[in-house]
Amino acid sequence: MKFRGLLAAVVVLLVLAGVLYWSNHRKTPETTSPASASTPILKIDSTAVASLIVKQKGAPPVTLVKSGADNWQITAPESFPADKSTVSAMLGGLAVLNAERVVDDHATDLSQFGLSDPAVELDITSKNNKTSRLLLGDDTPTGDSSYAALAGDPRVFTVASYLKNSFNKSLSDLRDKRLLPVDASSVSSIDLTRKDQTIGFARVQNGWQIEKPQPYRTDNFQVDDLLQQLTGAKWDPSAPADDAAKAWPKATPVAAVKITGSSGADTLEVRKDKTEDYYAQSSAIPGTWKIDSTTASALGTDLTRSLDDFRNKQLFDFGYTDPEKIEYHSGATSLVLTRAGASTWLSSGKKMDADSVENLVTALRDLAASTFVDSGFTSPTIDVTVTSDSGKRVEKVDLQKTSDGAIAKRDDGPSLYSLDSVTYSGLTSAVAGLKPAAAAKKK
Predict the structure, then answer these.
(1) Is the pLDDT of residue 411 over 70?
(2) 372 half-sphere exposure, CB direction, 13 A CA radius
(3) Is the dihedral of CA 307, 297, 289, 248 positive or negative?
(4) Using H for helix, E for strand and C for coil, what is the string for 396-435?
(5) pLDDT at 33
(6) pLDDT at 308
(7) Cβ–Cβ under 8 Å, residues 8 and 16
(8) Is the pLDDT reported for residue 20 higher than 50?
(9) Mapped to the 3 state alphabet, what secondary structure does 151-182 carry?
């Protein structure tokens, strides 16, 4: 019995010795003191970084080189545009990288922290060719932190695991996934082709102008939205390129687009299959790609809009600026209203009720076509002229009453605008409601 008790004591002693040895040689965040808030692992000027190499264990290194003010290019293992928002976020995290804890002030064996063959290594080179190497190793036993070290610094630190994840980027993560990686503000023209029709848009001083199939006043919002969808559409990194290539021949063509900007012209062709999945071929990215579902539907909607959808249906362009003069003529009714102050309107020298005139201004703003027509305008029954922008903008519109509303025509083009009865009666009712200002009460 004494021998057995002695043997048990020896076993317990050996276990305790082993635990003590491991504790002294495998330090954890729980056995070390917090690092000072003023103890950064790394400080860099993110604007001065010229290149960045991301090395993931088991994957080829990805080299990124700055090109221009805030653009990045992947140069290895292949050449691709880089996702500048992802790169910017990484550089933001590196700008001041603080330690949670100092695990070892003079580490001699980095392998116990997973740092001799790190999960992630970042090589950051600045414009003056100074390079910093950040190593990110194993997660700590608690799982909420990771071991980190800086090449040339004997210390081992811990950092929050989310920081390690934010730096642990693959080639796919770092690639710009836009099908047309173009700055929308630099685009000067768009050609949208569906079947046998091409709609051509050209950027002008105040927005956009439809030039094909012929010049039309243009809804700037709709064209801007089309451009944003084109330059924001992304390929789906989870969809194998081979599968997209197989689906392409069977898919139905939706549209082909050519956009021209300061860097030249790029093209995009889009098709849709029976399952409502969209695919694309872009001149900017070789191959065939499935379009990411988060951008495909909106892009498909804009690509299939009709010519009339892109035309400006508003009869007046003064928008929400305050006009200075309104002239209205219809049969025996002839009105000239002039603004004489912020809310003062005069007609033949007499002050008008401001609310009634504002109702007319609103009715004029609301004059918009429900559709466009090619004929039916013969003899106008109303003509309205609105002067705004300190006299720089003078717009004249003629209207002819019809059985279901009216047909209108601006004097600056041949387009005919069909108005529904509600819109037309809104104008005539506002005119009928005009009245002089109430006389001032005598004291």
Answers:
(1) yes
(2) 17
(3) negative
(4) EEEEEEECCEEEEEECCCCCEEEEEHHHHHHHHHHHHCCC
(5) 53
(6) 96
(7) no
(8) no
(9) CCCCCEEEEEHHHHHHHCCCHHHHECCECCCC
Top-level CATH class of 325-432?
mainly beta
Return d(Cα 408, Cα 415) in angstroms, integer. Answer: 9
pTM of this prediction exceeds 0.90: no
Q: Give residue 276's region: left, alpha or beta (phi > 0; psi -120 to 50).
A: left
Rg of the chain, C-alpha, whole Å: 35
Q: What is the DSSP string of 88-148?
A: HHHHHHHHEEE-SEEEESS-S-GGGGT-SS-SEEEEEEETT--EEEEEEEEEPTTSSEEEE
**How far is residue 443's CA from residue 441's CA, in Å, rounded to a whole number?**
6
Fold of 31-174: Dna Ligase; domain 1 (3.30.1490)
Amino acid identity, residue 336?
Answer: V
Domain coordinates in residue numbering, the chain: 31-174, 184-310, 325-432
Distances (CA, A) of 353 to 192, 257, 413, 433: 49, 52, 34, 10
- List all residues 6 or more positions away from 55 whose beta carbon is below 8 Å from its beta carbon: 61, 62, 118, 120, 121, 122, 123
For residue 391, give the H/E element and its range.
none
What are 255-275's pLDDT values in tens digits? 999 999 988 999 999 999 999
Handedness of CA 63, 67, 73, 78 (dihedral sign): negative
The answer to which of 8-12, 87-91, 286-290, 416-420 has the lowest mean pLDDT is: 8-12
Is residue 157 within 8 A of residue 102, CB to CB? The reply is: yes
Identify each DSSP E strand in 283-392 by its residue range: 285-290, 325-330, 333-339, 345-347, 350-352, 371-373, 382-388
